[in-house]
Amino acid sequence: MVQILLAIIYVSFISLGLPDALLGSAWPSMYREMSVPVSYAGIISMIISVGTVISSLQSDRLTKKLGAGMVTAISVAMTAVALFGFSISGSFPILCLWAIPYGLGAGSVDAALNNYVAIHYTSRDMSWLHCMWGVGTIVGPYVMGYALTNGMTWNRGYLIISLIQVVLSAALFLSLPIWRKLEKRAGAAVPEEGAPSGKALTLKEIVRIPGAKEIMVTFFCYCAVEQTSMLWGSSYMVLHNGLTAEEAASYASLFCIGITVGRFFNGFLMMRFTDNQMIRAGQAVIIAGIVILLLPFGKVTAVGGLILIGLGCAPVYPCIIHSTPANFGADKSQALIGVQMASAYVGSCLMPPVFGLLANHISASLLPWYLLVIMVLMVIMHTGVIRKTRKN
């Protein structure tokens, strides 16, 4: 049962990644059809991000009331409905309305599954879990590209992903007895008939926990580095290194591939090294990649630096999450992971546009320095987490 459930969780994380890159791949067709400016993609992305922040902050309360399995099943069902709504939308305002349930569903399932795996499975499993998310981000645009290049519209691409989510949601509801059996075997307090299991912590109570503020800033910084690199890597190579737009677009994909492949191999490394060792190693590789970006050797250093940053990002996110129960206690981990997810979404939503302003008004060549400042803050904050939670 343990392995069956882990397989279901892996597939759930693939489904979490499937729609994440859909908007970017479909938007060139969508905005023309809806007669809106190309920049309006940022509005939809912002609505989704706000929804994920809200649902992440509520994940502790929901999980204690319903259980991780039920929260996951309901969240995936919400995402399926939202994606179906995207597939039948013909105007931008309607698209914005469907973005609300999509964001709310994505945040809940992310926090619930991360906490469940952090408590019940190993660091290796956590690394491979996030590798599955990377697989989803690769498969999603492929499905959309298949739809657009075979005489179908972007609506059909969203419909296909929606149907996949419906099948997964049904599988999750059918698997609920397995979730409950394993939680009981682990000695967890399992809610029955919606009864509360333990007291949900308020945001004020969470922030007062030693190390909580530091871990929130750590997650903010990590996602700021990841998303800024992902969004602006191509522009940096074009504007600073002189690559063509086509070359930069093809090389930029290596960043996501680096994260996905890195998380696969990190699963094996986790058999030998601890979470904190892998986090520090990842931070060191990211900084090395940033330094290489600063070297004046054109395409070679630009591409090599971007790949190294992706490889360095690979262990950081899953290892910080997996170390949360050990650092703060299993009874507080769901609450902490919820605020970590919220901080992550804020970082990924806020910091790439901030660099966009710097690139627009000063120069895109500031990208390595921008990333380096964020990384220094991240290292300082994570060191503070270890120091304040060591007694646990």
Question: What does this entry look like structurally?
Answer:
This protein has 392 residues and is an all-alpha fold. 83% of the residues lie in helices and 0% in strands. Helix 6 packs across helix 16 and helix 11 packs antiparallel against helix 17 (367-389). The chain is globular. The two termini are 31 Å apart.
Task: List the SSEs and their pairings.
Layout: H1 2-17, H2 22-34, H3 41-57, H4 59-66, H5 68-88, H6 92-120, H7 123-148, H8 154-174, H9 176-185, H10 203-208, H11 212-239, H12 245-269, H13 275-294, H14 299-322, H15 324-328, H16 330-361, H17 367-389
Helix pairs in contact: 1-6, 1-7, 1-8, 2-7, 3-6, 3-16, 4-5, 4-6, 4-16, 5-6, 5-8, 6-16, 7-8, 7-12, 7-14, 11-12, 11-14, 11-16, 11-17, 12-14, 13-14, 13-17
| Largest sheet geometry | none
Q: What is the CA–CA distance across the termini?
A: 31 Å
Radius of gyration: 20 Å
Mean of pLDDT:
82
Broad structural category: mainly alpha
In percent terms, what proportion of residues is strand?
under 5%
Shape: globular
In total, the number of strands is 0
Percentage of helical residues?
over 70%
Low-confidence stretches: 188-197
